[in-house]
Specification:
The complex is a heterodimer of chains A (414) and B (222). The relative contact order of chain A is 0.10. A four-stranded mixed sheet of chain A has the order 2-1-3-4, with helices on both faces. Chain A is built from 16 helices and four strands. The two termini of chain A are 28 Å apart. Helices cover 67% and strands 5% of the residues of chain A. In chain A, strand 1, helix 3 and strand 2 form a beta-alpha-beta unit. By secondary structure, chain B is α/β, with parallel strands linked by helices. Chain B contains nine helices and ten strands. Chain B has a six-stranded mixed sheet with strand order 6-7-8-3-9-10, with helices on both faces. A four-stranded antiparallel sheet of chain B has the order 2-1-4-5, with helices on one face. In chain B, a hairpin with a 2-residue loop joins strand 9 and strand 10. Classes of the chains: A mainly alpha (414), B alpha/beta (222). Chains A and B meet through helix 1 and helix 9 of A and helix 1, helix 2 and strand 6 of B.
């Protein structure tokens, strides 16, 4: 036990020698991530929700009825603050869609209005970029779908009404009835705010605000990247020392625990003050985080402490990767690739709502997703015991894997 | 003290690296394990050091089975592998402290083994700034912390200059004189002269060999 304690103390001393370089590297990564946070916030329109969605309209738009409809949508409709419709040539629309000025454009086919009147129903084509399989595209498609749907339903009801009038010998009143039903639909279509209610999030108790989501995601990513900084120290190029210690009676589990605990200690003394600083900087910069609005200081302390189990888990994961790599380059690459892949699939870099269901579900079972969930639970004052237990299980699994890798390498290394 | 290796074998899956290794060593003697590259010398030494498990056979020290007694193994064996079993970022003193108690270390540095190895001259130098010879002497210094009865060395003079080799061999001669047994895997001519017994490891079998200083004849037997 005495030997193990000495080994732990010397491992800490060894790691402490690299601390100045590690702190510099972590600060640079933190600044980069903070800038990324600011950028994401702007792109995500968190600060500027008034920016309207721009849609182009090209093709046969000279029809009198169509022009009335467009004018009405542009000028009278209250949703014009959300959607801006621009009439233009197709060539220009392609250019503007490519450079991102337009979210997409609708191509109105030749004789569209006439076809609607006669029941032929020519289709409107919606053009958007193939790289924008995101919420905005989905919104545009949904918007166009709704308009087509209403036009079709309007026609059906008018034809139905005409038949009803004819069947019941009321043809003298048909004109008035059609006018009334048209006015009803015009009123409905003109006031699209009746069709699209402002987006409301159902409070499931699981969703954090966008700003809070970015804070949780990017700080978890920062913890995941920490392994890069200590790769030169902890990557096991050779295991001669471990072999000698084993022959002297210090088992691999003891050795691993000493090395892991030293790394965990260094990680904690770097990450916890850093997270306090980041959270304080966010607070001072005036960025509004809805979850922190009330009782900020109390939550802030609690939130920072929430990183402790996350650090414990990722220290184990990173130690396992140190053990798996046999040179510095492989060590850094492995840490970086694993951090990016797991952070991405865990919803730390991009909201999980944009991913297929299988990824959304699996995120709750992988380390990055669990860490994100744990921080989100702290922000929402939810019970995070289940998540904590899963993180503990992962920690044990990573450490067990580290011992197995160490053992196998010792057996196969000369 | 009598060290006996009896019919030791080691398999890696289906591959038999060691088939039948039987070696005898006594106090104050040095046994050389010879053989071409990849013949299993390092595997044999790591099996004896307890890093790998033998598939069969016995390792006896005065009739006590070392394979079955971990504590005994850690007490009687000092192992110096081919690599560098040192923490590069730390000084010689810190590395030695993993194996020595502080008071014991000071005593050894003043008038013991570590003084003999010349480690006292660079005790505060970080390992990464040391030459290959300094590192090897420090590795031996770490290995003999428990005053082992059997010192196992895997090519200790590999890639060292003549002065370092002489310094290490001088220490090994002194170790032998003091009653220690040495098991040495080597290719070095000078180290061969240090040995009292030789075994050639060929196709996993250790065969006794009588070395008469003729290296060409020795190589023909590999």
């Amino acid at each position: 036990m005495g030997k193990a304690f000495t080994y732990l103390r010397l491992q800490i001393k060894r790691a402490a020698k690299a601390l100045p370089v590690v702190i510099m590297t972590v600060l640079i990564i933190s600044v980069c991530l903070f800038l990324l946070f600011i950028m994401m916030k702007r792109i995500g329109n968190i600060t500027d929700p008034q920016e309207p969605l721009k849609l182009g309209v090209v093709g046969d738009i000279n029809d009198e009825f169509f022009q009335i409809g467009l004018a009405a949508m542009k000028h009278f409709d209250s949703s014009r603050f959300a959607v801006e419709i621009i009439e233009l040539e197709e060539e220009e629309a392609v250019k503007m869609t490519r450079d991102g000025t337009l979210s997409g454009y609708a191509v109105i086919p030749e004789g569209f209005v006439r076809s609607v009147m006669t029941g032929e129903n020519k289709q409107i084509t919606l053009v958007t970029t193939d790289s924008s399989e995101d919420l905005m595209t989905q919104l545009v498609i949904e918007f166009m779908d709704q308009i087509s749907g209403y036009l079709l339903e309007t026609q059906n009801s008018i034809y139905g009404l005409q038949r009803y009038m004819t069947d019941n010998s009321m043809t003298d009143q048909t004109g008035t009835a059609i006018n009334e039903i048209n006015l009803f639909y015009v009123n409905l279509v003109m006031r699209r705010d009746n069709l699209f209610a402002p987006m409301q999030f159902i409070d499931t108790g699981n969703t954090v605000s966008s700003a809070a989501g970015y804070i949780c995601g990017l700080t978890v990513f920062l913890v995941m990247l920490f392994g890069i900084t200590y790769s030169p120290v902890y990557t096991h190029r050779e295991l001669s020392l471990n072999a000698v210690l084993r022959s002297r009676g210090m088992g691999l589990v003891f050795q691993m625990l000493c090395e892991y605990l030293s790394y965990l200690f260094m990680m904690l003394i770097c990450i916890i003050p850093l997270m306090s600083g980041i959270v304080y900087a966010i607070h001072r910069s005036g960025i509004s985080v809805a979850e922190w609005e009330q009782g900020y200081f109390e939550d802030y302390r609690f939130f920072v402490l929430g990183y402790i189990p996350i650090v414990i888990m990722f220290a184990a994961a990173q130690y396992m990767l140190f053990m798996a790599a046999d040179n510095f380059i492989a060590g850094v690459s492995l840490q970086f690739i694993c951090a990016v892949v797991f952070a991405y699939l865990g919803g730390c870099l991009y909201p999980l709502s944009f991913f297929p269901e299988i990824i959304r579900k699996s995120a709750m079972y992988q380390p990055a997703g669990l860490s994100y969930r744990y921080l989100a639970d702290i922000m929402l004052v939810n019970d995070g015991h289940g998540t904590l237990l899963r993180m503990l299980i992962y920690t044990v699994l990573f450490l067990a894997a580290a011992v197995i890798i160490m053992d196998r390498r010792l057996k196969h290394e000369k | 003290m009598k060290i006996e290796l009896e019919h030791i074998s080691k398999n890696y899956g289906r591959k038999r690296v060691l088939r039948d290794v039987s070696v005898l060593a006594e106090s104050g003697t040095c046994v050389g394990i010879l053989g071409g590259n990849g013949c299993g010398k390092s595997t044999l030494l790591s099996v004896l050091a307890g890093i790998r498990k033998a598939s069969s056979g016995r390792f006896l020290c005065d009739d006590r089975d070392v394979f079955k007694d971990r504590r005994l193994r850690s007490q009687i064996i000092g192992y110096v592998p081919q690599g560098t079993p040192l923490v590069e970022e730390l000084s010689a003193r810190d590395n030695l402290l993993i194996f020595y108690k502080p008071k014991e270390l000071e005593r050894e540095l003043e008038r013991g083994t570590l003084k003999l190895l010349g480690i006292d001259e660079y005790i505060n130098v970080p390992v990464r700034k040391m030459s290959g010879g300094m590192k090897k002497r420090l590795s031996i210094g770490c290995a003999v912390a428990n005053h082992p009865k059997l010192l196992i060395l895997d090519e200790p003079s590999a890639a060292l200059d003549l002065i370092c080799k002489e310094s290490i061999q001088g220490y090994l001669r002194a170790y032998k004189r003091n009653g220690g047994a040495i098991l040495l895997a080597t290719h070095d001519e000078e180290e061969l002269k240090l040995c009292d017994k030789w075994y050639i490891l060929k196709r996993g079998v250790a065969m006794p060999y009588s070395y008469d200083g003729d290296v060409a004849k020795l190589i023909r037997n590999f």
